[in-house]
Amino acid sequence: MSRKKSSANRKASSRLAFQPSATMARVWAIPQRWLKNVTGFFLLPVVWIFTKTFFNVFSKAGHDSEFWMSEEFWFFALGAALWTLWFFGSIWALGQPRPLRAYVFGHELTHAIWVWLWGGRVSRMEVSREGGFIITDTHNFWIALAPYFYPLYSLVVVLGFGMASLFVDITRIEDTFMFMTPLQWLFLLLGATWAFHLCFTIWMIPKGQTDLTYHGTFFSLVIIYLMNLLLVAVFLIVASRHLSFASFGRELLENTESFSTMAWSCWQQVRAAASAR
User: Fold this and answer.
1) 210 with 35: CB under 8 angstroms?
2) Residue 17, in any domain of the structure
3) Structure-derived torsion over alpha carbons of residues 112, 216, 103, 105, reported in degrees to the nearest 10
4) For residues 15 and 212, is the Cβ–Cβ distance under 8 A?
5) Range of the domain at 224
6) Residue 180 in 3-state DSSP?
7) Alpha carbons 122 and 137: distance in angstroms, whole number
8) Domain contains 137
9) Residue 129 main-chain phi, psi, to 5 deg
10) What pLDDT shows up at residue 67?
11) Residue 85 in domain
């Protein structure tokens, strides 16, 4: 499914090798990349509506001084800032970000997790600093693009603290470990792991990954953008005491109606101009 990369291009590469069933017959069909790139074009209104909704909601959260002064926000931001400094510092000092092997492992494991979620089987997985790949019998664009919007290490942090909370209420623990409470460590690690995901995702996208090109680069980028924006919106709603999923849904509906009205008005003007000719 993916061509071999020369040694000059092997740095941090990733391949998702799909082995189709022997019973699959070749049939004439519209090329998937072409069809999905057209689908990506029709998703642009969704991108516009969701982006406008997110920034409207973010603006409302900006008027919430409690949110910006909250312990959760400051420790999340601190974790994100510390990781971002490390990421660019390692590129400047070492020529590539570190830990690269940890990213490749998380990237390929995320592919594998989504293969299992779709009922598939992973027959082989390899990871190294130069790149990695898995071989599977199941493939679709969700599996291919999952590492670019599924923050695996952030979910590991949430799962770890969630399991700990089954035995002790970490929100009430005032004892500190290395000058911070468990809750402060939670948000610090969430910020660091989210920045880890975002920095490596942005760094990897321009490198010609077959994960993106196989399903059409334009379509893949649209899906990655929408899914990451959705995750950030969820984080914002959960973190802000004055926002809710219901209010976000109402804002989304209002912007959808506004876009529909604008689109219909433009269509009427185009028809009127065509009739005038």
Assistant:
1) no
2) no
3) 20
4) no
5) 33-243
6) strand
7) 7
8) yes
9) -65, -30
10) 67
11) yes
Tokens coding 41: 């074009």
CA–CA separation, 263 and 260 (whole Å): 5
Does some domain include residue 64?
yes
Tokens of 122: 């992973």
- List the chain residues with pLDDT less than 50: 1-11, 20-29
pLDDT value for 64:
60
Q: Identify the pLDDT of residue 116.
A: 93
Q: Bridge-partner residues for 127, per DSSP?
A: 132
Helix (H) or strand (E) holding 228: helix 217-239
Q: What are phi and psi of 126, to 5 degrees?
A: -130, 140
Instruction: Please count the structural domains in the chain.
Output: 1
CA 147 to chain CA centroid, Å, is 7
Residue 7 has a pLDDT of 37
| Model pTM above 0.85 | no
Determine contact, residues 111/134, Cβ cutoff 8 Å. yes
